[in-house]
Each structure stands twice: as C-alpha cells, then as structure tokens.
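Ticket reopened. Same input as before:
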Amino acid sequence: MSNISTAFSKGKAFIPFITCGDPDIETTEKLVRTAVENGADLIELGIPFSDPTAEGPVILQANLRALSGGITTDKIFALVRKLREDIQIPFVFMTYANVVFSYGADAFFKACQSVGVDGIILPDLPYEEKEEFLPYCKKYGVELISFIAPTSRQRIAKIAKEAEGFLYIVSSLGVTGTRQEITTDLEGIIKVVRENTDIPCAIGFGISTPKQAEKLAKISDGIIVGSAIMKLIEKHGKTSEKIVGEYIKSMKEAVL
Amino acid sequence: MKIKLCGLKRPSDIAYANMLMPEYVGFVFAKESKRYVEPQRAEILRRQLNREIMSVGVFVNERMDTIVDLVNRQIIGLVQLHGDEDEDYIHRLRKQIKCTIIQAFRIESKDSIDAANKSVADYVLLDSGKGSGETFDWALIKEIKRPYFLAGGLTSENIHRAIEKLHPFAVDASSGLETNGIKDKQKMTDFVNAVRQRRKDDGGMTEKNGRFGMYGGQYIPETLMHAVIELEEAYKHYKNDMDFQSELAELFHAYANRPSGLYYAKAMTKALGGAKIYLKREDLNHTGSHKINNVLGQALLAKKMGKTRLIAETGAGQHGVATATAAALMNMECVVFMGEEDMKRQALNVYRMHLLGADVVPVKTGTATLKDAVSEALREWTSRIEDTHYCMGSVMGPHPFPMIVRDFQSIISKEIKEQMLAEENRLPDVVIACVGGGSNAMGSFYHFIEDKEVQLIGCEAAGRGVDTFETAATISTGKVGIFHGMKSYFCQDTYGQIAPVYSISAGLDYPGIGPEHAYLHDTKRAVYVPVTDEEAVKAFEFLSKTEGIIPAIESAHAIAHAIKIAPTMDKDKIIVITISGRGDKDCAAIARYRGEEIYE
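Engineering reply: fixed in the latest deploy. New output:
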C-alpha cells in the first residue's frame, strides 16, 4: 500500500492545500503542523510558480507573495525534510511543469524521494504529456496524480485506468477559487471512474464551506480545499495558525 | 515535400491512398488516356477518399465547363492542365473557379523551362511526356525559378536521387507505381516511404503529434484538453474543405486587401549601398498588420465550429484589434485581455477595440503585459469553453495553435515567393522578420524552409540590451522550458520562474518564442538576432524618412537588422523585410522615447 492510499484508509479524507512560503517558510511549517493536528489526512504543498495559469486570483497572489518573499524549490525541499522528522501523513507537491523541468526531472524526483514527498500534482501536465515526467516519478517512487475535469467525457476511462495515488476530480469549469455552487454531474463522472479503477477520488476546486464539503464527501473519497485556506492566510499572515487550524477542523468534521 | 499519386481509377487504388495519405491524388479526365476516369466514377472515388487528401483533376484541352462542373461538385480541388492551354485559357478559367491551377510542361529543352517559368498558373509540373514513364534530362531543371511538381518516370528507386538533386515542391508518380497497367500496392508504399524517409533526413519540418522536434506539445490543464482536441479535428477537416478555403480566400482578397505588395525600397537600397531591399507590406492589410491573416482564418473556423464568442490576448493591441474586427464582421462576441501597462502604451488600439464592439479586460497581474494577458485568456477559456474560441495571436500556446496560426500566416511567404519570382525571376537571399511569439516571422519563413539557399533571420527584442535584465530576447538569453502550453525557449530564472521581460515594443514584449522557431534555431535553419530599443527606434525613423513608410516599432526591429547587414552584401543580393504592421500606434511612444510629449 502506497503512503498516499493510507490517507484514504480511515474514511473520507480531508486534503488541505498550502502555498509554501506565503507569507514565509516559518509560517508554512507552523501551518502544516496545525493542519496535521486538526485532522488533515494528506497535505498538498504548493511550490510557487510565477505564472500559475490554472489558479484563480487567491492562489495566484499567494504564489506571487511567496516568491517575492524569496522562496525557492530548494528551500521547500529543506522544509519537507524537517517536517518529515515527525510527520507521517502523505505529502504531495502541487506545482507547474516548468518548476520541475527547470530543476531537472531526475534531480527533482530524486529529491522528492529523499525528503519524503509521496506524490506530485501538475495542473499543466495532461494525460497526453505525462511521459515527460512519468519515467522519473516511477524511478523514485513518486506518484503522479491525474486530473479529471467536467470536460473530460470520453477521456475519463483512459485517464482512470492509468491513474495512480488518487484521482483529482475538478469540480467545475474554470480556475481554482471559491464558488457559490457546483453544478457539475460529479456522480456521473465518478461512476465512470469506478468502472475503470479502484483508486480513491478526491474532489477539488471551488469548495469552501463545511456544507459543500459534507455534500461532496458523500459521493467521493476525499475533499481538497485550497483557496479558502489561502484566503485566511492572506488575511491573517503570520498569525493565521489558529484560525486555519479551526477551519481545517470544521472541514474534517464535515467530511467524516 | 509533397506527394502526388496520379492516375487512380479503382476503389482499391483509393484504399491504398487512404492508407498511405499522400497530400494529393490525381484523377485523369483525358479520354485518350488509359487511366481515364468518367466524372461519375470520379465522384464515387472522391467520396471514398480520405478528406485530408486533395484531389487533382488532370485535363488535356478540356472544355472549360466540364472542369468548372467538377470543381463545383467538389470532385476535384485542384486543376492540372496538360494540353495546349494558353495564358488566356487560364485567366478565363480563374474567373470561374478559385482553386489552384497547375500547368504541365513537357521538358525537352531550355525553351520549355522558360515557358514554365513564365506560366501564369499557380504551380507548374515538369514532365517527360504524357505518362510515358520515362525521366527527362534533369540538368535542365536548374533553370527553373519557381516551385514545381516533378513528374515523369519517378519510382521508389530513382526518387532519392531526384529529391537530393532537385528539391521539388512536390513529386508526382503514376506509371512507376504500376504493374501491368494497374496500381501496385507495394510500389505505391515503397514510393511514399522513400519520399518520407528522404523528407525526414532533410529535417522534416511537418509537425508530428504537435511537436517540432522536441518543442511544442500540449501542456495545459485537463479542462482544456477537450477544446484543443476538438479544435484540431475541426481544423484538419476544414483545412481541406474547398468551401472553407474559398471563403477564406475571398475574405483575404476582398476584406483584408490581399495580396499585400512586395515593394522595392529603392531609396533605402540606395541609402544603404548594398543588397537590394524589398519590403513585404503587411502594414497595408486591413487593420494595419499581419494579424488579420490569422484572425480571419480562426474566426471563420470558430464560426464553423458553432462558437459564438472569441477571446484573445493582445500585446501592442494589433491582434486585439484584428480579433475585434473579425468578431464585428462575423457577428460574434469578443473579449480581449490586455496588460494594464500595454493599455497605457497603446491607448489608441484600446479605443479601436471598444469602437469595434469588443470588451477589453485590463490584466493587472505580474508585469501587466503580454505574458499576463495570455495567462488570463487561458484562465478565461478554462471557465467558458462551450461557446468560446480562444483566438491565439501567435505561433505559440498548445498544439494545434502553433500549426494553425503558422498555416494562416504562411500566405505571407507564399506571396513573397510568387512576387519575387515574378519580379526578379529568383528567390531572395535573405528574409528578415521580427519575432515576439513569432507569427509574422513564421509566416514569412514557412515557404522558404525547404529552399536552403534562402537565409532566414528573426529579430528579437533586446530592449536595453541582452546583457541587461530589461530584455525580451528569448533565444539569446532564455533556456528551454514549459510554459503557456508549449515546450520552447523562455526567459526564466534558475528555478524556472518566468522572467519579467522588457521591450519598447509591446508586441515583442514576451518571455517565450513559438516552438517551431525553437526548432528552426536548434537545427540552424534560421538565425535569431537581438535588436535593442535604440536600434529599433532609429530604424523606425530611418524608414519613415527614406521611404515615407512609418513601420510598427515591432517591424522596425527587422529593419534595424537589415540596416546592419545590407551594406555588407553585394548589390546583386536581395533582402526581403516583412513590415508586419504600420506605425501610427507607436508615434506617441516613440515621441516619449525621444523626450517629447504629444497629445492626440
């Protein structure tokens, strides 16, 4: 059993996303610990990218703040190494293809293995391009997470068949960010997924309230929340630890 | 190099063609030929033929209405004349049909080559005789001055030598593919494979799976994959759809004012004292730049796909204006994303877009320039796909955009080639164009890529210099990366963060370059040189004063390089510079650069 699948072994998973280095790396470390203490089952750690084309304004600004604060890929590897000394839950990086490519795919995934990152999410690496990094992921035992979107239709089966870790189900059209309501036929999509694979399905994009989380957790294996958390960090900065912890706790309770 | 398999007449011949996928097949409508097919039979064969293969009708002194009827019924897409048809015949035929006309010449002496050089047809075909299966004296071909189909006794055995020695536009085989008078599947396969192998050895410029060598690809969110696949399928369909192509040709001609002139810049030539300089006047197109070529094509395609809304990014505003124009013309909704910084630099174009009925959305993130406008347009497309086409402005982004935009812009080099041959009876020595994403350059280069003797030069915006951080010269200062859907060269830091770039020209102020340019750079088929703000501004002023032509500041980068190299070249050499746009939009910015505030 891969480390990622343990996140889904104790019922529905709650997966918070945190942009590393916003507002600084020390705060990120505190936030990760808080998230674990308040019930996070897996944590998505964002490596900032200057031009994240799949992100809405909240995470885009978080990326830019982190970069202007001097965060780098190497500093994030060092952070993970430190966190791994006492944290066991799976970590998954979420970043953009150029961050990995420019670091050198071999060196990047080797570092992931060495510090203890279990998987990677690259929103600009669709099924058609996954060979770019997949051989390196396999070499170093890092699982490459695939997306399924509301527009995937006949692509769902082939993506699901080859998926590993968990499947990231995109709740609705558009970029990341909170939404009033989600109208996609997610049950229909997940039904096709289930016909093709046994790996867990986690829904993300646009989820911010416990009510939404509760509803979507019923039809999936886990819930991913990013923008709503980053909004709290944007507002509270270095003192966001407590409020983020409370928020994560409320969301975790909602999905259970 | 393209392949034509001629004289197909049985359904099995069509089945072989569908398997081999040549660019063209030929149906012979000359009754005296043993390969004659009746129009009714040809119609059935056409229906069985893959839509991506173009069918050529071969005629000998045929009644014109027969040809027109075959074209109108879409049984054939090109006309090949093999008899004694004269200039007048071709002119009259052109009045009735819009398709490409090929005139065949039996090459017996230098005179027949001269006649072929003078033909008013779109292409000529050089042959040994009427299907005799023999080759002619290829030494005569060195006098040919235009793209041609090579025919006459070609087989899989002699095709290597033919391609190596002659570099034809297309190769045409018929009897060499037959055994006992009928098409032989093995011979057809061998022939096509032999040409393709040769083409591959030559660096094979045609894109495969959306790649140009290692560059290109589709690095985009899963949400957009369906849209780009749908777009590619639609484009492949309409690319060979005769109605679509004739509709587009009509728009180019009647609406956009094509063909654009190839102007001999006598005063500039004299002032520089070296190579002869021609200007390809894309600035004279409707909306004032080359952007209209691509936009009319994409808007028409989007319309056929049932889309009702166009979105676009723009830097200098030229692509935004062109998109707003096409949207107005075709009654579509239009939203243009433009960096806030660029909106200040190009206020006039913002007003023009509003006037044309488009919404202009200011982009405030990052450097608030072209790069950020592209990101924002991609985000918008992700959230609204069903009714919306993203009208990409350059040869960049995910496949199929670099290919589609290149194809629509390639009209520039197609015309340059024809005009240059008509004017000088030869190809130019150098073609120069400016490069941001690289659409006008790709359009200017495309039809010369296989003419190895033509030097291709792209001029990048160096801003305040390639040794400063205020530059946008991607090839000179960037490295390979993945961004905006493609693998190519990008200006970036050691961790892959995209660099904030700078150029006085809003249209070249982009940290990347189209993937096909990256490939042309790596294979050394084209060279890319940096040109600074200062050099471009001087060239802007130079062309205005010497030729009375105010070029866009983007195009001025290409002029600046010509100013550098023309004096070092002999007077019998020829340079073509693509003037990608007109410079009215830049006057205020240039005035500011020179320390003068002007108010409109």
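Residues 241-255 of chain A form the longest helix (15 residues). Chain A is about 45% helix and 15% strand. Please confirm and we'll close it.
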